[in-house]
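Example record

The entry below shows one chain as it appears in the dataset: sequence first, then structure tokens.
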Amino acid sequence: MTRSTASTGVPNDGSGTGGAQGSASLACVILAHTDPVHVKRLIAALDPFPVFLHCDAGTPDEVFAAMTTDLPDRVVVLDRLATGWAKWENVAAELAGYRAALQTTAATHVALLTGTDYPLAATEDIAALLDEHRGTSFARIEALPHPGWSRGGGFDRLRYRHWVFRKHMLRLPIPRKIPQNIVPAGGSQLKILARQHAQAVVDVADQHPELVHFWRRSWVADETFVPSVLSTPHFVPGWQDEHVSATPWWIGWDGSRRKSPPWLGMEHLEDLKTRRNHVVEEIPKLFARKFSTADSSDLLDAIDATLRIPSVVQT
């Protein structure tokens, strides 16, 4: 783990990070690949939350330098891994972020974001919501078979060994056994975990190398490894009672067949306002994706002006 040029680390005494004796707080793990202008805008929008930034090892050096130069002290730059579409290294980067956040902050929750995300709420409102949900995670996770995940409900992601080649799936058509005593589950990589759940995920990954070995050759491991660990009572006995089955993210899926969501623009502003201001699930939407400097600058300005106004009264 490397520090940003400006960073001397994030305190672990609860100062500025919340903790059991203070107000709730969020540590943010960001997995980024490109668009340093937007990544820095995202980091600024998350102030004062500590940020643990991972940049794909395949990102050009000049882009990485632009992304990591002159960052605030609350940002830690993680060692770079070769992340990418459907690769195990996405999980490895997520775990590295959790480890760093748990070791260097007293944050009550840890969020996993991408470099194309952006908050729809002021950080004061995010902290207030987390304060109401101490010890509670926010993640939409379902035991397999997962609706919409092929005819096998996602089990084929685990039963067969997979490789990625130029954004294409290579599958070895020889079935293997899924590890015993684990509950196969799936869900979005984007989530907010209570501290004890993030710690449990890290502990399982560190203490069970056989599971890491198995999941390295599963398909889109970032949608099944952590969900399966969390859903297994042997590893996380309190999960069912300690999480809200809802996602705090709004994603602009448009119903078309595509591998990733569309970029958001001004035409999505009313959708974002509706999802932020009207609770249609157990919690309001706190984040959205995907944003870029090229496609979303006007929309981001509008979000800052209309949605990210603190509603929490400071005392």
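Notes for this example: The first strand starts at residue 26 and ends at 32. The mean pLDDT is 90.
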